[in-house]
Amino acid sequence: LITLGMFGLLLGLGSAVALTLLRTGVRVASVQTYYLGSSATTPGEQISDLDQSLVITQPRPVAELAEVTHLHLMGGSLLLFLLCHLLSVCDVDDRLRAGLYAISFCSFLATFGSPWLIVFVAPGFAHLYGAAIITLIVSLTVLCLIPLREMWWTK
Fold first, then answer.
1. Which residues contact 56 (CB under 8 A, 6 or more apart)?
2. For residues 71 and 110, what is the distance between their CA atoms, to the nearest angstrom?
3. pLDDT one-digit tens code per residue, 26-60
């Protein structure tokens, strides 16, 4: 049952990675454009309405940021709690375990806090977003794989 749950989590993680890459990407410019919006024209330049609607994006509304943050903080915290709880019963060095706990929770908070920083503090926080989401993906993958290794490949 735990194995099936872990594979389900890994599939969900894969779809989350795909969705993130499609929506925001991890490059600084694409993250800034997603959260701050973009303008397709320079002052004085004329383009058709169709071209304008295809290229211009609007900044993310505060309500959308709040909704996404709320849902992910609630569900993601439970997911991290469960994965870290499984890690706590695995035969792993205590320093590695503590490091994984810290890295996963910090990258989780940075991933969902950085959009607020991008919008309300400075666009440069897009650097943090890319690094945080990559770190979160890697740490979640490791948190899934260590218990699977313990269950199936160690005696």
1. 37, 38, 39, 40
2. 15
3. 889 899 989 998 865 445 555 555 444 545 678 88
Token readout for 101 is 């706990």
Q: What is the DSSP-derived secondary structure letter of residue 39? A: -
Instruction: Extract the tokens encoding 61.
Output: 């509304």
Q: What is the model's pLDDT at position 151?
A: 87
Whole-angstrom Cα distance, residue 92 to residue 128?
29
Q: Is 138 helix (H, G, I), strand (E, B) or coil?
A: helix
Cβ atoms of residues 129 and 111 within 8 Å? yes
Neighbours of 144 (CB within 10 A): 20
Q: Token pair 């004085």 is at which residue?
A: 44
Regarding pTM above 0.90, the answer is no
DSSP H helices in 2-125:
2-23, 28-36, 49-55, 62-88, 94-120
